[in-house]
């Protein structure tokens, strides 16, 4: 624009390039001075939103009408998107997005050059891990990597990202996810994930065929949450959990705005997986629209957002009672598939017993798992895990190795939920019989 740049800050005053004008820390007096000038510079106000008063707003409007003829401009910068209603039509709002993968890689290379060091991870891997952070937060994470040479570099970056994302308040970054091999059975679900792995990574050019989301329903304790973590592992994508309790708590402002901000933050994270746990409890408008208009508006926003969100952002939701969800949420176009995670069959139960024994350092072949698989009909995965833990605990309290008798004793102490909540479990299974695809292969 071939004009001098003047910068105003509340702590310094008006810096004209050559000097700082005296007594210019007050916003009103500074604006009055600018209004009196004949030759007008380009003026940048930092964080002026903290000083909005009727006098400041009026002076800004006077400057606008005077300076639009001269070709000068006032630039207001702030991390908060707050604009007084009186200024909205006299102002152009520009939102600076979070750094892209290419920009993050540029920050990494510049940091390596300035510090004269070579990071143990490639810029592409660092960019994929730190996507969604600001430039300053990325530099903070790199500095932590520099001063923690003995830690696993990827785990160090993931932990730093988890901490920085947690400050936002409503979204949690899940760094540690299990491998797909830790899922017992569920062959139909695994096959669906394998076939769509490449589609989720194709990006903008294939919006129509890029997977949008998946809904997992089923009996409590059957591993729906574990499945979603395994999706992140299978597709090698970062996993984020939307905390609906924090959104409705009011600690992060208006729930509607907090939810919209969380969704837009997730758009910046793509490609990624967004996990919404027990979606029927937090985002169902059934039976509550008349008494809770806020929930109704959040629900309507979510439906539109699911339809219009960018490709590469995959929504994975779980529900214990999908019959509580309205039809418009589960229709095709929002979720690609609805899977029913049923009580494991006999082959799956044997597999789950083996997984939990092996995970805790025991050889599954030393135990007669066929007997336990046959004798635990109606058990879910969580109950099988607790049986193994209980048996290991009994042996540890007696300071000896785990034996077969410990497994038998632990089995007798557990009453499965399919027995204690028989009517509710039967209702869920009957509802899903012809309405959802079974995650497990037929036995």
Automatic annotation (TrEMBL):
Start and end residues of each AAA+ ATPase domain: 210-345
Key words of the record: ATP-binding, Nucleotide-binding
Q: Which Pfam families match?
A: AAA
Q: Does the keyword ATP-binding apply?
A: yes
Out of the domains of life, which is the source? Answer: Bacteria
The UniProt entry, under SUPFAM superfamilies, shows: P-loop containing nucleoside triphosphate hydrolases
The GO terms describing molecular function are: ATP binding; ATP hydrolysis activity
Family membership: Belongs to the AAA ATPase family. Highly divergent.
PANTHER family in alphabetical order: YCF46 PROTEIN (PTHR42960)
Name it.
Uncharacterized AAA domain-containing protein ycf46
Task: Identify the species of origin.
Answer: Acanthopleuribacter pedis
